Amino acid sequence: MKRRFPARAWPIFGAIRYRAAVRCDECGHSLAGVPSGAPCSECGVVTPDARRTHPPVNVVAVVAECAWPMALVALGVTLALGLTSRTHGSDMLFGALVAGSGFLLVTAATALTTVRLMRRMPRRARWAPVLLVVPRVVVFPVLAAAAATVVAVVLASGGAMAAAVGRSFLTP
After folding, report:
1. Residue 25 CB: number of other CB atoms within 10 A?
2. 1, 42, 70, 73: which has the fewest Cβ within 10 Å?
3. Given a cut of 50, is residue 7 above it in pLDDT?
4. Inter-residue contact 100 to 76 (CB < 8 Å)
5. How would you classify the pairing of strands 15-18 and 57-58?
6. What is the pLDDT of residues 63-117, one digit of tens each?
7. CB 115 within 8 A of CB 19
């Protein structure tokens, strides 16, 4: 018997498009062949028709949601360190504020994007414990936000080094 709804993905212009993979919202079991309004054969939960399939994930939009705060961090570090020798201390303070707000936005944007993407997972998978009793819906956004913050710190350090090296070459 040929499978009717294989879950193959094709990346097209940054969006991952799935064939209509009909899944149970509770356990993630395939509902292919199960009539609309009928309960899942695994867990017995009736999944509404609107939540049986998810729209495709636009990968470019997800990356953009997480990347724009990092650009703000790089801009802030460049302003704070690159303009200090030529302008007043107020410009350095402005750059430091931009970089600091960028660090907060990196953490928040990554955590919120991770939570939004985790809503696509079945409920049992979202709330399954990872670290003893802490559910995945809490652990994964925290880990993603921590990783994004580390990347932003590395980016800021690189920007600071580039500004310092550029300043040392420009001064006689």
Report:
1. 20
2. 1
3. no
4. yes
5. antiparallel
6. 888 888 888 877 777 776 665 555 555 666 777 777 778 788 888 888 888 888 8
7. no
